[in-house]
Write a structure and sequence with these properties.
- Helices cover 22% and strands 38% of the residues.
- It has helices at 36-49, 74-77, and strands at 10-18, 26-33, 54-63, 68-71.
- Strands 2-1-3-4 form a four-stranded antiparallel β-sheet.
Length: 81
Amino acid sequence: MKKPDASRLFEYRIKYNIGVAHAEMDNYHYYNAYNAEQALAFHFKMVAKNNLKMQTLSVEKFNPYANRWEDESEIINHPEP
């Protein structure tokens, strides 16, 4: 996992879908993290710990200055080594 670039934590929300053939409703998990990589790592640890079968759909970072969620979903398919 990449070291944090700054000392500021941001709020991340990860959209996921759980259920038979991913046909159930979408839900969110929220994490405080330094970057999207760390938030996704927290999410995957929670999934493994609870032995869940789910599909991760998106990762978004809350920008408090613009008061909006910003898409950072590219991390799902291209995680840092």
